[in-house]
Automatic annotation (TrEMBL):
Protein name: TPR repeat-containing protein
Coiled-coil ranges per UniProt: none
Entry keyword annotation includes Nucleus: no
Keyword Signal: yes
First and last residue of the signal peptide: 1-22
PROSITE patterns reported for this sequence: TPR (PS50005), TPR_REGION (PS50293)
Keyword terms, alphabetized: Repeat, Signal, TPR repeat
Amino acid sequence: MNKKLFLLSYLFFSAFTLPLFAQSEKEPSAEELFKQANALYEQQKYKEAIALYDKVLAKDEYFARAYNNRGSAYFQMQDFLNARLDFDKAIELNPKDADAFTNRGMLHASLGSFEKATNDFAEAMSLDPKNPSVYYNLGMAYFYLQNYDFAARNLYQCVLLDDSIAEAHNYLGFSRFLLGFKEQGIQDMTKALTLNPNYAEGYYHRSNAYYNMENYKLALQDIDNALKLHPEIKEYQNLKKAIQNKIKP
């Protein structure tokens, strides 16, 4: 009997003290919530990450990095309007944040606004001049604007800082080729394929170059390698047909 009373009194006590104990626990800080949100982002749980970034900003409305990272999560979910608003706010709060300029530049580029992208990437470069990815992004934006001179200049800076980026060597080579530096361009594209032998786009670009140089045998070898990796891509299929038409007896 006494044991039952003790048990009942324990449950009664616990039922009322647990909520009080929980209330007395220290709430996580904005920085702690920010780290939790970043972990969710890394797991590609973007919706959940956004919900936590919301809590961070409810605690600290001037937390620039939270705006930047929430913008990245919105970007991953293709919510470009909210992504742009967050990147703008991050830059307003911290105009020295190269990452925020880079992210906004990526947003502009993904929407085809390459002029705006070059402006943001150039600002990121001025803030973080030792970061090879900044030069790569700027070079690619110029490439899509068909400004191959500026594309080559920035991609060259990228590979000077990091010689291991196959994509940078590929587009540097293709830009140089289009500028008339054909042999040098071929060397750069070959370097890209040495770094990544499974780089289909690298084979495609070098095949294009060989086709332009009327070296159809090497062009066919490269486009065959590209098609082995990605047989579904129409551009690769069309280039192979064009090459085959040239080598028909």
